Amino acid sequence: MIEFAHASLALLNRDIRAVARSRSQLYSSLLFPLMLLALLGTGVSSGLSPTSPRILNGDYTSFLAPGMIAMTALFSSTFSSAGFYRDRESGLLRAMLASPHSPQTILFGKSLGAILIGTIQALAVLVLAVIIPGIDLSWQYGWLGGVATVVVTVLALNFMLSGLSLLLALKIKTMQGFHLVMNLVLFPLFFLSGAFFPLDEVPTWLEAIGYANPLTYAVDLLHYASYADSPDGLIGPLIDGLVLGSLAALLFAFGLRRAPRSV
Question: How far is it, in rounded angstroms, from Cα 63 to Cα 114?
């Protein structure tokens, strides 16, 4: 167990240092959601005047904020997993898998880096949303309970996404193919998660797809904890937590079990 912890922490430290040196990745991961909040949020609030009861007082920018937290976790976590390909192409991954440590230990350590990076960047967006004037968040559990719920939700989301990324990375042989498939999978899932529009006001067939989407439960829980002033129209924290927690545990465990012995 001690050797497992040492190996995992060493890989985590290596991946964190690599991301810290890539300032363009850090800046873009924070600037993109803020740009959407400023442009899309303000444009819809002012230009379209949304009337949905789920969008409090027609303030679309505040409604969009929890979705931007989920989006930051989504893309930061999955694209940090692309480091798998850099290590495979350089031959370093083969050398690590040939070490006395099990393949599960190696991939667990590498996954921790993606999970931690995605979580930190998502919480940074939360902090910015709190301090930016014009974004009004309602903490149904109080701010302490709300923040704790957001942290747990973001962590579970990142574990689920890391497991999915790991499964795809073990099957797809090139980084270009990985990015194409992830974009093909992630963009539709994110748009149909309730992050951009309430699912209870779309056609039935879109609503059905939305509720079959695992990201919907993460976005719903973020809305419940940080934005909504009542549970009306939301799935609810119990169902959200059960679905998200179960999928996170299953996908992450299954991704590690599928770890190859050679690359």
Answer: 27
pTM listed for this prediction: 0.84
137 phi-psi bin (left φ>0, alpha ψ -120 to 50, beta other) = beta
Integer Cα distance of 144 and 149 in angstroms:
9
**Tokens standing for residue 208:** 């059905």
Q: Does residue 263 belong to any structural domain of this protein?
A: no
Site of tokens 């590498």: 110
* Number of separate domains in the chain: 1
Place of tokens 């770890």: 259
Distance CA(100)–CA(89), nearest Å, equals 21
Any idea which residue has 């795809």 for tokens? 168
Our measurement of the distance from residue 59's CA atom to the centroid of its chain's CA atoms, rounded to an integer in Å, reads 24
Domain that holds residue 7: 2-257
The reported pLDDT for the residue numbered 98 is: 67
Integer Cα distance of 146 and 258 in angstroms: 35
For residue range 70-117, list pLDDT tens digits in order: 988 887 766 666 666 676 766 666 767 666 667 777 777 777 888 888
Does residue 161 form part of some domain? Answer: yes
Tell me whether residue 262 is in a domain. no
Nearest to 72 by CA among 150, 23, 19, 125: 125
